[in-house]
């Protein structure tokens, strides 16, 4: 697996900020036995370089619950998170892979399936008890600087039929309405961020109105549209090459923060092709490990219509 790190940095003016602070967004680690210790070390070294105050992990921390059943693998992942939490507070929301258990099962219609719904409550409870680690499973976190809500989309939101994958907007809207307390009547004196794993419908008007009070919405899931190294810097668009649902040239699958009124940030993956993709995972070296750094400031020079953006690679 490749270890080249790609960090997109935004300088964001916010009138409520007193002391500058930064938020690192990462997602889609898809932790498995194939995520090596050297790759975890590379991620840690990148985080150490940018020294964020907060680290947001926007879903798919694990590739499936099977990957943390063995004690050795649980300890390996928990130790990694503990090291990160020495740098900044960690806020974790859940993605579809965090609910997977792999094997041979029958679905509700009696058809064979290689995944079933299974949430490893014991593992995620262990994470939630780590110092400076907060699991936002339809919960919120706040301190003197920041307010963050984490929305967990139910397993039924992610649907499959005849090998095709799709997502259910009605279930998304139902979930947002059910979690109304996390989305409205938010504090006015803090930077407000919503964590939700999939961005598929988040640019649609009827969905956007559910999170009007947030400054930014951060997602993952789309693996940067599988835009590979070499095209990465020149592919200056929110479109990708292919989505997880096998849609060609999908929109809003890459960073979409360009102007001050933009809210949606779609973070690329730490692991593009996960353990269950077979031989395809050998091509991970073509895809840098992507993360997004949000630097909040009261400096008026960043109070502009166009968002200040820079990118950097780390080896």
Summarize, please.
The protein is α/β, with parallel strands linked by helices and 315 residues long. It contains 5 helices and 16 strands.
Describe how the helices and strands are arranged.
Elements lengths: L4 E9 L7 E6 L10 H14 L3 E5 L12 H15 L3 E5 L6 E7 L5 E6 L3 H8 L4 E3 L3 E4 L3 E6 L6 E4 L2 E4 L1 H10 L12 E6 L8 H4 L7 E4 L44 E3 L22 E9 L10 E7 L1
Parallel strand pairs: 1-15, 2-3, 3-4, 4-7, 9-12, 12-13, 13-14
Antiparallel strand pairs: 1-16, 2-15, 5-6, 8-9, 10-11
Tell me what you see in this structure:
By secondary structure, this protein is an alpha/beta fold. It has a single domain, classed as 4-Layer Sandwich (Purple Acid Phosphatase, chain A, domain 2), CATH 3.60.21. It has five helices and 16 strands. Strands 7-4-3-2-15-1-16 form a seven-stranded mixed sheet. The longest helix is centred in the first third of the chain and has 15 residues, at about 70-85. The relative contact order is 0.22.
Keywords:
Purple Acid Phosphatase, chain A, domain 2; alpha/beta; 315 residues
Report the CATH C-level class.
Alpha Beta
Number of domain modules: 1
Mean pLDDT equals 91
Shape: globular
Structural class: alpha/beta
Mind telling me which CATH architecture this is? 4-Layer Sandwich
Proportion of residues in extended strands: 25-35%
């Amino acid at each position: 697996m490749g270890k080249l790190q790609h960090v997109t940095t935004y300088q964001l003016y916010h009138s409520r900020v007193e002391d500058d602070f930064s938020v690192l967004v990462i997602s889609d680690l898809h932790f498995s036995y194939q995520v090596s210790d050297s790759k975890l070390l590379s991620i840690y070294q990148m985080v150490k370089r940018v020294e964020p105050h907060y680290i947001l992990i926007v879903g798919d921390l694990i590739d499936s619950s099977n990957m943390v059943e063995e004690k050795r693998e649980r300890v390996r992942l928990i130790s990694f998170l503990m090291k990160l939490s020495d740098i900044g507070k960690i806020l974790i929301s859940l993605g579809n892979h965090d609910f997977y258990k792999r094997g041979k099962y029958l679905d509700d219609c009696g058809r064979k399936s290689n995944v079933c719904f299974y949430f490893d409550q014991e593992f995620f409870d262990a994470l939630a008890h780590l110092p400076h680690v907060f699991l936002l499973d339809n919960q919120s976190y706040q301190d003197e600087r920041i307010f963050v809500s984490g929305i967990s989309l139910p397993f039924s939101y992610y649907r499959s039929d005849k090998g095709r994958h799709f997502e259910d907007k009605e279930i998304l809207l139902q979930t947002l309405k059910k979690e109304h307390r996390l989305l409205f009547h938010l504090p006015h004196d803090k930077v407000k961020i919503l964590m939700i794993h999939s961005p598929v419908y988040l640019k649609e008007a009827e969905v956007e109105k559910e999170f009007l009070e947030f400054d930014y919405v951060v997602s993952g899931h789309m693996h940067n549209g599988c835009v590979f190294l070499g095209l990465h810097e020149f592919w200056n668009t929110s479109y990708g090459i292919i989505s997880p649902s096998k849609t060609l040239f999908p929109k809003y699958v890459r960073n979409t923060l360009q102007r001050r009124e933009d809210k949606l940030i779609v973070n690329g993956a730490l692991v593009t092709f996960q353990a269950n993709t077979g031989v395809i995972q050998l091509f991970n070296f073509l895809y840098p490990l992507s993360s997004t750094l949000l630097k909040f400031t009261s400096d008026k020079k960043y109070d502009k219509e166009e968002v200040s953006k820079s990118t950097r690679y780390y080896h």
